[in-house]
Amino acid sequence: MNPVFQGLITIAVGVGGIFVYFIASNAFLDKVLFPAKGPNASRNINRANTIRPWLFMAPTIIALSLYLVYPVIGSFIRSLFNRSGDEFVGFSNYTTMFASSEFRTAFWNNVLWALVVPSVSTFLGLLIAQLTDKLRWGNIAKSLIFMPMAISFVGASLIWKFVYAIDPELGVINAIRVNMFGASPLDVLQIAFWNNLFLMVILIWVQTGFAMVILSAALRGIPEETIEAAIIDGANPFQIFFRIQVPQVTNTIIVVFTTTTILVLKVFDIVYAMTGGNFNTQILPSYMMQFMFRDDGRATAVAIVIMLIVTPVMIQNIRQARAEMR
Amino acid sequence: MDNIAGKKSSLSIVVNITVFLLVLIWLIPTVGLFVSSFRDRDAISASGWWLAPLATEQTFRGRGDTESVTPGDGGVVLTGNVFLDPEIAPSFPNGEGKIAAFGDSGREPGEFPAGEVADLGDGASLIVERSGDYVFTLPEDPGDRGPRYYVVAKTPPSFTLDNYRTVLSAGGMGQAFVNTLTVTIPTTIIPILMAAFAAYALAWMDFAGRSWLIAAIIGLLVVPLQLALVPMLTLHNQVGIGQSFLGIWLAHAAFGQPLAVYLLRNYMIGLPRDIIESARVDGGTDFQIFMKIILPLSFPALAAFAIFQFLWTWNDLLVAKVFLPSSEETKVMTVKIADDLLGSRGGDWGILAAAAFVSITIPLLVFFTLQRYLVRGLLAGSVK
């Protein structure tokens, strides 16, 4: 069957099915299971109302437990088995992995990514948010800097592949090197260590817009009086920014920083498309994709390592959410 | 801060310039790709895209026309026009070229400026006018093969849609575009409906364990998708879904749930309590309240999530690589670019650029027309 046609059917069946499920299950609950009439009417209404939320949430809960909760356990169990999955090997996938130098490279590169990308993009986002705030064309500027958010990581990689191209007639970087400084062109993606930074630039380019939008809203949410008071006290613009505004958006800065950190641990597209993990640019997500389809035991072991790195952030988020709900 | 006396003018110039430079840095990569996508292979290798609107100097080579041989003083004379040479003519369909320089060796194709008589040694000489007319003087008849000459000609800036034609037809991007749409549309619509009901329950219905469920969903927001790949693909294979569109629809619909529920719940809880209470007093059931009050009022949040989910599924590479078969008929655009084009067309930049633009046009369109909702969604998702 043609996939397009299949897609249209899926939309119809999916949307229709969800509506039918909700309407039918509701009706079943109210009319058949606990009808709001007869001697037990009021008790039935209460019972129906205890069950109803779970009816509403059932599709989501099933989807989440199947696709996100079960895999945490499933991946862990799978990582204890060998390549073909029929022999229990304990933690040997992990010990082999920790012993391999490529894993260590990927791990430390990932640490570097997780430090550099969130810091730089949050800093630039804050800077741009503040600078564009007063400009007449500020919204256009923001919109243009925000634009890469819409572009896929693959597309962004391709865009930057042009910038980094060795041919000085093609790559802006080498054009500047050759024409302005008379140096010979070089492949920036092969310079050890620095190539990691050149790859990070791509993610920073994509993520700065996100930081900017959120921080810009936070800056606008600062009470005017605090800034006015500082102006009256004779503070200069830099003092106002660093001593009045930034302290008031610290929480938002932390949120932006952690969100970007989490993202960094998941993005494999850029390294995959730019270098394929060669020239010591491997990071954990792309390292995992090397084993995907080849050795599921090792692949899941890498995934569990990523999960362990993310866990502290997850616990912190849950704690904060529970504190806010009280 | 506009009203700080004496600071405004100088600071505001600096601010303007800084922002302008930042925007420039942000735009240059995309503009470069965009311009390159309209240039053919020769133009791309001849000059940087930043020179695209200018005329470029390109080197061509041709052979003296042996049919024009006439005896002259001290040998034979060949005459003709460079732009009629069968090797060069295809590059100048309008015939509007200008010769800047010429030469007789490939090493120095522009040794002599146009219009000057060049002594080639051994009694041979050559002159090429700016208009392309040339006169070759040779000591003896060259026979069938005319003598080689090289010219440096200014070619007018040329832009072409050929790259797009190649990419969409022969490149297989047309099929990939349809596949991307096939993945994206159902996975944008279906999860919203699922999540909206759940979000309503979490926002406005009272039951035991509600706060734990909300906390769990917030926790699931950060679970790396990488964990789901192996176990879910194994499960899909076991139940017979395998790698297929159905599989990727299910996967995307589920992966979108945490963010959808989180965004929608945050929005719904902010709706005025009075409306919902009075509807309850009037005898409205939860189902009616949801369908007739909450859903229409939540439109901005629904739109925000729809845009997120659309952009995310359209741009996704990871899930598509794992849950879709890797055959040509089912490749989505990101996989096509990352796996096929970057490898096999690695040197054909025009094609690569066109492919990239085919894949990012729709997201950019969505982005610029619905930016308002996207920003609102981002804010609802991260700032409390």
Task: Describe, in plain words, how this protein is organized in 3D.
Chain A is mostly helical and 326 residues long. Helices cover 76% and strands 0% of the residues of chain A. Chain A is built from 14 helices and no strands. In chain A, α4 packs antiparallel against α5, α4 runs parallel beside α8 and α6 crosses α8. By secondary structure, chain B is an alpha+beta fold. Chain B folds into three domains: 44 residues, no CATH class; 100 residues, no CATH class; 218 residues, MetI-like (MetI-like fold), CATH 1.10.3720.10. Chain B contains 15 helices and nine strands. In chain B, the strands form two sheets. A five-stranded antiparallel beta sheet of chain B has the order 2-3-8-7-6, with no helix packed on it. In chain B, strands 1-9-4-5 form a four-stranded antiparallel beta sheet, with no helix packed on it. Classes of the chains: A mainly alpha (326), B alpha+beta (384). At the A-B interface, α1, α2, α4, α5 and α6 of A face α1, α2, α4, α5 and α6 of B.
Q: Helix and strand layout, with pairings?
A:
The complex is a heterodimer of chains A (326) and B (384).
Chain A: H1 3-33, H2 41-78, H3 92-99, H4 101-133, H5 138-146, H6 153-163, H7 172-181, H8 194-220, H9 224-232, H10 237-248, H11 250-264, H12 269-274, H13 284-291, H14 296-325
Helix pairs in contact in A: 1-2, 2-14, 4-5, 4-8, 4-11, 5-8, 6-8, 8-11, 9-10, 13-14
Chain B: H1 8-36, H2 41-46, E1 56-63, E2 70-72, E3 75-81, E4 98-103, E5 112-113, E6 118-121, E7 124-128, E8 133-138, E9 148-155, H3 162-169, H4 173-204, H5 210-220, H6 226-239, H7 245-255, H8 257-268, H9 273-281, H10 286-297, H11 299-315, H12 318-323, H13 333-344, H14 349-369, H15 371-382
Helix pairs in contact in B: 3-14, 4-7, 4-8, 4-11, 5-8, 9-10, 11-14, 11-15, 13-14
